[in-house]
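Tutorial handout. Part one gives the primary structure; part two gives the three-dimensional structure as C-alpha cells.
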Amino acid sequence: MSRKISMLAPDWWDYTTLDDDILNDAAKLTAEDMLQISRKGFTVKFYDTLEDFYLAEALEYINAWKQSTADNPVGICGPIGPTEQLPLVARLVNELELNLKNCHFWGMDE
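Part two.
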C-alpha cells in the first residue's frame, strides 16, 4: 500500500500521510492519556503558558551545552518551528557568558 499524498507538501511525508485509523486514535487521546505515554527517555510535559514552554525549551539547550567538553561535545537538534525559544537561548548564552566552543546546533531540516 502506498502512502497518502501529503496535504501540506505533496512531495514529502508528514502527519497528514499517516493512516486514518492512527490519526483518529490519536485525536481521541486525553491529556491524561498523553501523560501516560511518558517512559524512560521520553517525557511528556505540559506548561501553563507559551512563555513557560519557550523558557523550558531554552533551558534544555543551555543545560545540555553546559555539559559539553572537548572530549565529549554536545549537540542540539533544534526544531523547524516553533523557534520562539531561540532569542531566549541567545540571551542566556550571552548573559551566562557560556563558551560554546565544544557545542553544536543544527536545525531539524538540515
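Part three, for discussion. The radius of gyration is 18 Å. The CA atoms of residues 71 and 102 lie 9 Å apart.
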